[in-house]
Input
Amino acid sequence: MSETPPDNTFTTRFVLIRHGESNVMVEGVVGGLNTCSGLSARGKEQAACLGERLASGHETSFDVVYSSPLPRAIETTEILLSYASQQHEIKINSDLEEFRLGEADGLTWEQVRQQYDLGNFEQRDPFVPIIPGADSRAGFRHRVGQALSHIGSIHVGSTILIGCHGGVISAAMAIAFGLGPNQWHTELAPNVTSITELEVSSSNDRGRRWMCRRYNDIAHLHGTDLDPRDHL
Output
């Protein structure tokens, strides 16, 4: 756990890990709680590469571990922890789940495009879900922000590893940079098994301050056939 600086500022660090390539990604299917079946063989290799990197001694150590409830995030986190020198319990937080698409769970993305009006998604009312049972953009942002706030409040001054999703990381970055839910000019696309590191400093005198230490770091996949940029 981090020491408290003399000015009574507490710094809490979030290390956000996007899961490896999943089966639903390969199959082109919406993978919610009813459908996600974990990582593909390639995704397991990507997670192992990241695990080796985290075990190298050149990365920040972490104090506590959280994961989304989706199998692809849990499996990625489990693989990472298998390389750790210290044992950690994985704490599941349902609010770290990827953007929920309601009744579209299990459909192919082609079926989603055929059955629902997705046109001008970013410019539409951010408080209204466009698929029955789905998150709204504003609701998703609020859910992620509330989860990070709660986790940070019970682990003040700690480094927290979170196994999650591209949407969760994008929402966290938007919160850190103060982007509103109707902001659609900026698009974030974190790669599989990427590391995004955010710090929240808080003090009685200066309130809360976010800092992005790094975003979308996939150095562990560079030069390998597991690099997702080679398959775009």
In short: Residues 13-231 form a domain with the Rossmann fold fold (CATH 3.40.50.1240). The chain has six helices and six strands. The mean pLDDT is 91.
